[in-house]
Structures are given as structure tokens and as C-alpha cells.
Design brief:
two-stranded antiparallel sheet, 13 helices
């Protein structure tokens, strides 16, 4: 009886190494479906990713929206509202993404994780499935923020196509941060500690950037960090999509950041998940 568990683990590793791509996609889809069913049965879990960003958007725009600002969106002048709202969208994406890592860590700390690891499924299926489900949440969050922003006077020059592009950029950026948070959470390997620690990098990413002010207006020591911050690149892409400003340079920077955040931490998170006990 005691030899059965090692045998099943060895069988799982053997099957894992031979998992064809279509099975990896199927396994990931099953995990994503499970995650979405859990959210449907527990709608209270959607308060943080969907309701809180709307509250922050309304509060920030109501307090600061009519300030004048220059030098945003490729050099155009306008109200702070036009500069702020893209930054808030990316700030909320950065602050919501750590929930992916926390959810994975809760599963890793439960018997459910052991059941997943004993099955002949793709190593990355749990992580990919969770990210697919969270990507849908990120998309809904971005769409809601854009809808409320439109009511507050924020307009996207490209219409529905521009709004769809902003949503896609937001999802890609949020998924990158979520992958990083998943790796860090599994590395910490303690739900209570991770809950306190994971949001510090997200807060730093959001505030040491051009999300709320142009880089040139930040403190001198912040400016070098803000220039290479992925939030700065993501906010710049969003502002350019909204206003029709230059897009190539910030899009290239954001693309490099997104690939880096997904590829390296994603590989490490998948290995960490499979070896976690």
C-alpha cells in the first residue's frame, strides 16, 4: 500500500514528460473551467477585482480630474483626467494580479494540490488554467473601468477598436504580473506571509511609475526606476491608444516586459508547483 503513492507519482512524471500539446491545452481548459465555476458559486470573491477598482477610479478622478497637466500622450496638453485614467487602469491591473499567486498557494497548501500533482496532466496546466480564468477577470475589469471612465468624460479616439486594444494591453500586462506573483507566492510557500508580502511589489510598481504623474515630475531618485518600470510602458501604450499618440516605442518596451514576466517566472512557477509538498 505504501508503495502505491511513489508508483503513482512516478507514473505521473512519466506521463507528464510525454504530454502532447493538445492534452496540455485540454488540461488547462479544465482547470480554467473549475476556477470560473468556483467564482460563480462565490461571487463575493469578485468584489476586490471588480468593485474596488471602480471605487478608486471614481475617487481619483473626482478629486484630481480637473487639474491641468502638460507633456502627456506624446506632448499634448490637457486635463489630468486624460492622463490619470490610463494610469489607474494599469495600477488596478498591477494590484489585482497578485490574487493569482495567492489562489495558487491556497491550492498548494491543500489536499487538492496533491491530487492535481498525482494526475497524469501537463505540468503547467494548473498555472495556465488559473491564468486563463484570471485573464477573463482582468478583461472584465478593464472593460468596466473603460465604461465608467467614459461616463466620467474619458474618450478613446479609436472607438470600440481602441477600447478593445486597451483591454488587450491591460490583460497582457496583468497576466505578466500575475505569473510573477504566482512564482513568488509558491517560493514563499506560506499563505499568510504571501498575503502580506505580494502586494508590496505591486504597490511599488504602481507608484514608482508614470501612472499618476509624468516621469519628469517625480523625485530625482525615482525617475531612473520609473523610466524602466513596466507600468510606465503599459500606461504609455494605453494613453497613446486613447489619444492617437506615438505607439511604437512604448509598445516595444511593454512587449519585452510581458514576454520576460511570463517566460522566466512562468517556467519557475510551473517547476515549483510540481515539486511543492
Amino acid at each position: 500500500m505504501t508503495a502505491a503513492v511513489p508508483y503513482r507519482a512516478a507514473l505521473s512524471r512519466t506521463a507528464l514528460s510525454r504530454t502532447p500539446p493538445y492534452q496540455a491545452v485540454r488540461d488547462s481548459a479544465l482547470i480554467a473551467g473549475r476556477t470560473l465555476r468556483v467564482l460563480r458559486k462565490n461571487p463575493g470573491r469578485m468584489i476586490y477585482p471588480l468593485v474596488q477598482p471602480l471605487v478608486l477610479l471614481v475617487m481619483f478622478v473626482s478629486v484630481f480630474g480637473n487639474l491641468a497637466i502638460t507633456g502627456h500622450a506624446g506632448g499634448a496638453s490637457g486635463t489630468y483626467r486624460e492622463f490619470l485614467i490610463p494610469g489607474i487602469i494599469m495600477e488596478n491591473a498591477a494590484l489585482t494580479a497578485p490574487t493569482t499567486g495567492l489562489a495558487l498557494l491556497r491550492d498548494a497548501s491543500s489536499g487538492l494540490a496533491d491530487r492535481f500533482r498525482s494526475l497524469p496532466m501537463a505540468r503547467a496546466a494548473v498555472l495556465a488554467g488559473r491564468l486563463a480564468a484570471d485573464a477573463l477577470v482582468f478583461a472584465v475589469q478593464a472593460a468596466l473601468l473603460l465604461a465608467v471612465a467614459a461616463l466620467l468624460g474619458f474618450h478613446v479616439r479609436g472607438g470600440l477598436a481602441g477600447q478593445a486594444a486597451i483591454t488587450a494591453v491591460t490583460v497582457a500586462f496583468a497576466v505578466g504580473v500575475a505569473v510573477l506573483s504566482a512564482w513568488l507566492a509558491l517560493l514563499i510557500n506560506d499563505p499568510e506571509t504571501a498575503e502580506r508580502v505580494l502586494f508590496f511589489p505591486a504597490i511599488a510598481l504602481a507608484f514608482v511609475s508614470s501612472a499618476f504623474a509624468p516621469v519628469a515630475d517625480l523625485a530625482g531618485w525615482m525617475q531612473p526606476v520609473a523610466r524602466v518600470n513596466p507600468v510606465t510602458a503599459a500606461a504609455a501604450v494605453t494613453r497613446s491608444l486613447a489619444s492617437g499618440g506615438p505607439l511604437a516605442a512604448p509598445l516595444l518596451a511593454l512587449g519585452c516586459w510581458t514576454v520576460a514576466l511570463i517566460a522566466v517566472p512562468g517556467f519557475l512557477a510551473a517547476r515549483r508547483w510540481q515539486s511543492a509538498r
